[in-house]
Amino acid sequence: MKKNSNFLESFVCAFKGIVYVFKNERNFKFHILFSALVLLCSLFFKLSYIELSVILIMIAIVLTLEIINTIIENIMDFLCKDYNVNIKIIKDMASGAVLVSAFISIIVGLLIFVPKIIIMLGD
Predict the structure, then answer these.
(1) Calpha distance 68→101 (Å, rounded)
(2) Which of 43, 46, 22, 47 is CA-nearest to residue 33?
(3) Closest by alpha carbon to 52, among 44, 117, 27?
C-alpha cells in the first residue's frame, strides 16, 4: 500500500474511513442521530459557548471511540476467523469503552439541559 502523496489525499482517505463506518456500523448511525438531536436542542436552548464546547467534545469522544471500536473489531476478525475467547474479551472491552463514554455523555447532557428545561417549564 502506497503512502498518501499529499494532505488532500490523506483527507479524502480519512473521509472514506468515516463514510465506511457510517455505512456499515449501526451504532455509529445511532450516535450520529443522537448527536444531531443534541445539537438541535443546543440551538433551541441557546447554550453558551462553553456548554456547546462541552457537548461537542463529548460527541467527538463517543464518535471517535466508536470508530476505534470498529477498527479493533475488524482487526480481531481479520486475525482470527474462528471463535476465540481472548478475541471476544478484547472486542467486549473496546465496545465497553464506547458504552462508558456514551453514559458519561448522557450525564453531561442532563447536567446541561435539565436546568434549562426546568427554567423553561417554570415560566
Answers:
(1) 13
(2) 22
(3) 44
The secondary structure element, H or E, covering residue 97 is helix 85-122
**63-83, pLDDT tens digit by residue?**
999 999 999 999 999 999 999
C-beta atoms surrounding 111 within 10 Å: 11
Burial class (CB in 10 A: 0-12, 13-18, 19+), 29: middle
Single pTM value for the model? 0.91
Report DSSP letters for 9-60, one per residue.
HHHHHHHHHHHHHHHH-HHHHHHHHHHHHHHHHHHHTT--HHHHHHHHHHHH
- Per the listing, cell 470498529 goes with 70
CA 69 to chain centre: 10
